[in-house]
Design brief:
Length: 189
DNA sequence: CAGTGGATGCTCT
DNA sequence: GAGCATCCACTGT
């Protein structure tokens, strides 16, 4: 049977419920993508979150309804993709950090200029480059083209750990990964 | 394997 | 002007 599409209702819950359920789900962008193997949760009262301190500038979409894409530029170079969660005003989102590449491998290799499958989507910036996601896709709905999201068909073993690359709230264990996956951006300890 | 530094552009809890 | 939710190339174990 076909996996169910992820709906806006799926995202309209606590980020701490949604984030682990995204491990094993499938993310396609214009038909290119794969299985989500690593994510991180952020929310408004989290000093490490872009939504910390309230709606303003680039974070506006994080305070809108659940089920939309929050895309931001990282270190002036890379794009990073988040899924907005919870209700209007909550400022919550899940950062998509790594995929196991499954569909459109040739396209991903061309965009990433590497043939190393393990490095195609291992990291939020690499993943957006491989899928062709940019700031032009800020605010797009996740339940309509060019996005296609499918629920996982089995419950995988999940590992958690500290989030990567942040300087605030560094001890919060809000990074989730697929246990044993070689496609994560960094090993889980 | 770990650690370091540069690239680069936007926001400023 | 500082500080990034990063990546890559390079160095040294």
């Amino acid at each position: 049977m076909k996996p169910a599409r992820l709906t806006r209702e799926f995202f309209d819950r606590s980020v701490f419920a949604v984030a682990p359920e995204l491990i094993g789900a499938t993310l396609l962008f214009r038909g290119v993508g794969g299985e989500i193997v690593e994510v991180e949760a952020y929310h408004e009262t989290d000093p490490a979150a872009h939504s910390y301190g309230g709606p303003r500038g680039r974070n506006i979409v994080m305070f809108g309804p659940a089920g939309y894409a929050y895309v931001y530029r990282s270190y002036g170079i890379h794009w990073c993709l988040n899924f907005v969660c919870e209700g209007v005003g909550s400022g919550a989102a899940v950062l998509i950090r790594a995929l196991k590449p499954v569909t459109g491998l040739h396209t991903m290799r061309r965009r990433r200029r590497t043939t190393d499958e393990r490095l195609l989507c291992a990291g939020p910036g690499r993943l957006c480059q491989a899928l062709g996601i940019t700031g032009a896709h800020y605010g797009l709905a996740l339940d309509a083209p060019p996005f296609e999201l499918f629920a996982r068909t089995a419950t995988p073993a999940i590992v958690t750990g500290r989030r990567i690359g942040i300087t605030k709230a560094v001890d919060e264990p809000w990074r989730y990964g697929l246990a044993g996956s070689r496609f994560v951006s960094k090993p889980f300890r």
